[in-house]
Amino acid sequence: MQLSDAQPGSYRVIAMRAPNDLAQKLSDLGLHIGDPITVVSSQGVNGVVIGRGDARVALDHDSAAMVRVLPFSGGDVLGIADLKPGDKARVAGLKKGDRDYRQRLMAMGLTPDAEFALTRIAPLGDPVEIAVRGSALSLRKGEAELLMVERV
Questions:
Q1: Domains detected in the chain
Q2: What is the pLDDT of residues 86-96, one digit of tens each?
């Protein structure tokens, strides 16, 4: 969902679709992919006030519309390396990386908020096998590190 549509509550930033200059300004304000934020007030077309720790930031509607968020349950953001076989997790977002490979991961069902289970890890740690949406996927460790996950 877009930050501009978010109601007051806790969220996690999962993507920013902003031009580089605006993305840099948002980053300077402390808005980063994977970070938890609190929507303090949502003023519809007038903008959104968010909280990060003790700081409050007001964003106009157009800027907030370029930030994608998911409701946040309070878990820590981890990487695949932090999981063990049998662990279940939810995709919290995707790190910046090779755009084509990120799109391929999403095409395989690893979209934000998708739940999966880590099935196996090869003896030398690469690749890892996960079960997502009824399919088994083997991912190279470096490629799987693009995933930001929360334990379920």
A1: 3-71 (2.30.30.90), 80-151 (2.30.30.90)
A2: 888 888 777 77
